[in-house]
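Design job #97: recover the sequence.
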């Protein structure tokens, strides 16, 4: 279980670094081009990783092509929505909305994967989501929304749609890990998102009346560095997160998604000069606490800690009043 949690936390850090690259490039580079660059760079990274580990091409064999297709389609939709929200919202806001996905993951895992989603997991996810809501009050309170209902409303809707697509993709990833190699899962997903980005760019070129805003833009050195960095970090994050589901249930790892909010706050300060307020700091503490609660709760339900053992521990520190002398 511990390797799964560590890999999940590393994936949130890498995904946040990817988001920084996307946000840097977003003002000048169209969404389809960002998706294409992020995917093609990650695909090259994955290929090099496979060659280095000796897994090419044997680790790419699959017995579930339709499963990969479903995972790829939902993952691609989630990627487009996530990147789209980054163009409409500040980094911390977009991350907060997108990481409503653990709620969806826990719900779907309980129904679709028939995982034993006990009360502590639900409580950890809800506490983490409460931390996200606390962070949002600084930027998307009622007064702020009244002034910016267009961009903020669209951005929130796109981000929440991305969260739902991402949750379905995560559940499908969990299913695929039962029979497929990590490299195959990441490879076919990345191939599909590369094709999706390329298809949108081609459509914009030959049918500009449909999606003229997605026409290819030659990136300058700064944008190119941001796009390559986003691709490298996105590729690493996909490897980390896919591997994590081999070691722990999707519903357990869901609460650790909220660590991305902590990294997003740090990135906002370092790269964009946005200092966190008291609600943001409170939310970050709640997010970190939700991960700790999930870990402790898992140990309790695994039998390592029981109600009886807790009372036994407490009784050891109580006075011996009422007990016969020995």
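Job complete. Output follows.
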């Amino acid at each position: 279980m511990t390797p799964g949690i560590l890999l999940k936390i590393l994936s949130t850090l890498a995904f946040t670094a990817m988001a920084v690259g996307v946000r840097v490039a977003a003002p000048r580079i169209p969404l389809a081009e960002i998706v294409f660059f992020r995917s093609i760079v990650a695909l090259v990274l994955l290929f090099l990783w496979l060659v280095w580990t000796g897994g090419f091409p044997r680790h790419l064999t699959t017995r579930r092509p339709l499963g990969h297709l479903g995972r790829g389609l939902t993952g691609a939709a989630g990627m487009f929505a996530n990147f789209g929200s980054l163009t409409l919202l500040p980094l911390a806001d977009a991350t907060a909305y997108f990481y409503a996905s653990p709620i969806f993951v826990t719900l779907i895992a309980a129904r679709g994967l028939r995982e034993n989603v006990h009360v502590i997991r639900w409580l950890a996810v809800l506490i983490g989501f409460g931390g996200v809501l606390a962070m949002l009050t600084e930027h998307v309170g009622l007064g702020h929304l009244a002034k910016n209902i267009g961009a903020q409303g669209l951005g929130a809707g796109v981000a929440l749609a991305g969260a739902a697509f991402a949750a379905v993709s995560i559940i499908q990833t969990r299913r695929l890990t039962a029979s497929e190699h990590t490299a195959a899962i990441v490879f076919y997903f990345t191939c599909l998102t590369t094709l999706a980005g390329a298809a949108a760019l081609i459509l914009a070129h030959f049918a500009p009346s449909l999606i003229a805003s997605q026409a290819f833009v030659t990136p300058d050195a700064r944008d190119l560095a941001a796009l390559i960095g986003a691709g490298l970090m996105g590729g690493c994050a996909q490897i980390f997160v896919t591997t994590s589901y081999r070691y722990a249930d999707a519903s357990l790892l869901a609460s650790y998604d909220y660590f991305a909010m902590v990294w997003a706050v740090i990135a906002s300060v370092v790269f964009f000069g946005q200092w966190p307020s008291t609600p943001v700091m409170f939310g970050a503490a709640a997010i970190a606490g939700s991960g700790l609660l999930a870990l402790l709760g898992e140990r309790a339900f695994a039998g390592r800690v029981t109600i009886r053992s807790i009372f036994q521990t407490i009784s050891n520190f109580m006075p011996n009043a009422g007990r016969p002398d020995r």
